[in-house]
Structures are given as structure tokens and as C-alpha cells.
Amino acid sequence: MPDIAHQYRTIVSGAGLRSRADRGRLRFTGADRVSFLQALVTNDLIALKSHQGTYAAYLTPQGRMVTDLHLFLRPDSIVADVPWALASGLAAKFDGLVFSEDVQIVDASAEVAQVAVIGGRASALIAAATGADAAALAELPVWSQLDIENGFVARTDDADAESYDVVVNATREAALIEALESAGAIRMSAEVAEAVRIHKGRPAFGVDMNTDTIPLEAGLLDRAISTSKGCYVGQEIVIRVLHRGGGRVAKRLVKLALPGAAGADGAAPGAVLAVDGKDVGAITSVAPALDGSGLLALGYVHRDHAESGRTVSVSAQPGLFATIVGFAG
């Protein structure tokens, strides 16, 4: 198999695709679907129109994460993509919150497929495969959608290059992938997809975030949280941290660079990070750097040490150091 850097160069000059088997899909219908979700999730849906969307979190009353989710406002529904393992439970949980509202929630994971396409020619190859307008795709704002036969294409922010999710009826997924490959897209390996995610600094729920995570720790403020909308579950805790605590949380999710491949054994998820012999955090994800320069990781670091340029040691391997190169989110 070609190395990660070679695969990525090929994708950047063209496009890579992968089935989003890691995400499930919920469908919300009914006249009250927007107001129902507006009262639950961290971002503002009321400000959106049909064919727009957003990224958000759903929290406990204590401000901890239940899940993250992408919300796509469609003319007759809202489609939400969520972690695959949580989809059926979330559908039941949301359904249990319905009282008098006109809203219906179903787990549509088996009915609706989602294919990610990224790369320098992503819009052109999606257009060739689906009949969509390539110029219109290239101009789509993030999370906005363009209709295609049997589904829609949504602009995403998953990579430095153009990135989209093509959402179609599950019976059409194989034909869609075949058409994308015929147009010139290549299938991304799981390894390169993970490297792209870590390079972009996007935390994955169940990997870099869990039910103990406050979304501010994972850097989700700018992408997932509205500071001007009305009440939602967990808002009191988020606002308290932002206004009374100045946004300071105990730890922050950061991007870490490790030189060379020598640290591959020691820089595994769970590896402890330390400063002057004192534990200050841990690695959550790691992958080869996209430029072939070594390893890139995500990990939590205590707020007192979470700053770009800071060097931390990886306790599992003496002499191995990582440099904080940015924040995740």
C-alpha cells in the first residue's frame, strides 16, 4: 500500500472518496422539527433556511456531551448525521422528549447512505458523477446543500481541500461510488482518512470526545456553539464557563507533532504527556503526518501548558517529545 503522504498527494490533485460508515443518520419530520431541536442542541437552527445546515452538540443538563451532530435542513425534514453506534439510541432518546410537538424522529441509517469526497477536484468529479453543477458546488457555503437525484450534496469542513458529503438513498450508494470512481475519484483508505481528520484537528466522538467532555475542552466553541441563541440543554454550564470563568476549562484538546517514525510505539492513544516529570495530559488519536514528516496526534493538555510551541514529553517512551502545533476543534 502506498504511504500516507503519497495517497494524500494523489487525493489533493484529484479526489478521494469513502463511505461514511462511521456515521448514522436520523430524520426529523413534522411542523415543529426546527423549534424542537432548537431547544436541545448548542447551535442556532432558527437562523437557518432550507438547504442550509450546521454542526452542533447535544449536552446533558450538566454540560457534558451526549453526542455531536451535523444538521442538514431539508425542505420537508432535518437530516442529522451522528456517530453510528449511537444512532438508534439517540432516535429513541429524542422521541422520548416529544410531548405535544408535531415532530417525528426515525433512525434512517439503513435507508440513507453518506459518501465523503475530498480533494482539489472534488466538486468537478461529484458533478460528473451526479449531474450537479460544478460551479454551484464549489461556491456552496459550509453545511449548505445542493439537490441531486435521490439526495443532496453538502459542503463540509473535514479537510483543507474541498470536502463534501453526498447523501443518497442507500440503494443508490454502490452506483454513486461506481460513478465517482469512473469520474476519477479513488477510494481513501481508513488510514489516510484518519490522518486527514487529525491534520484538520477535528475531534471524533468516542475517540477524542466522550460523555465526560465539556465541548469547550474539545475546542467546539466556534464551530458548534451559538452564544446568542435562546435556551438549550446544558447552556447554563457553557455560559457560566464563558462568562464567569473567562472561557477557561481544565484542559484543551491540541494538535501535537512528533518528529520521525521512531515514536510510533510510544505515541499511542492513551500515552501520557508530561512536563518536567509531571503528567499534564494524554494522547487520544495519532496518525502519520500528511507531509511524511513524522506523526501528528490529538491529545488533551492541562490549560496551563496548552499553548502553541510548547514541548511535552511522551512518558511511555523516554526521550520522545511532542510539540503543540495548534488547537483542535
**Strands, total number:** 17
Distance between the termini: 30 Å
What Rg do the Cα atoms give?
20 Å
**Proportion in helices:** 10-25%
Global structural class: alpha+beta
Number of continuous helical runs = 9
H-E string? HEEHEEEHEEHHEEEHEHHHEEEEEE
Estimated share of beta-strand residues: 25-35%
- Which blocks of ≥5 consecutive residues have pLDDT under 50? none
The coarse overall form would be globular
Mean of residue pLDDT values = 94
Strands side by side in the biggest sheet? 8-9-10-7-1-11
Summarize the structure.
By secondary structure, the protein is of the alpha+beta class. The protein has 9 helices and 17 strands.
Describe the structure.
The chain has 329 residues and is of the alpha+beta class. It is 23% helix and 32% strand. It has nine helices and 17 strands. The strands form three sheets. It has a six-stranded mixed beta sheet with strand order 8-9-10-7-1-11. A six-stranded antiparallel β-barrel has the order 12-15-14-13-16-17. Strand 13 and strand 14 form a beta hairpin. It is globular, with a radius of gyration of 20 Å.
Task: Present the secondary structure layout.
Elements: H1 4-13, E1 16-19, E2 23-29, H2 33-38, E3 53-59, E4 65-73, E5 78-83, H3 87-96, E6 104-107, E7 112-118, H4 122-130, H5 134-138, E8 145-148, E9 151-155, E10 163-169, H6 173-183, E11 186-187, H7 190-200, H8 221-224, H9 235-244, E12 251-259, E13 272-275, E14 278-288, E15 294-302, E16 311-314, E17 321-327
Parallel strand pairs: 1-11
Antiparallel strand pairs: 1-7, 2-5, 2-6, 3-4, 4-5, 7-10, 8-9, 9-10, 12-15, 12-17, 13-14, 13-16, 14-15, 16-17
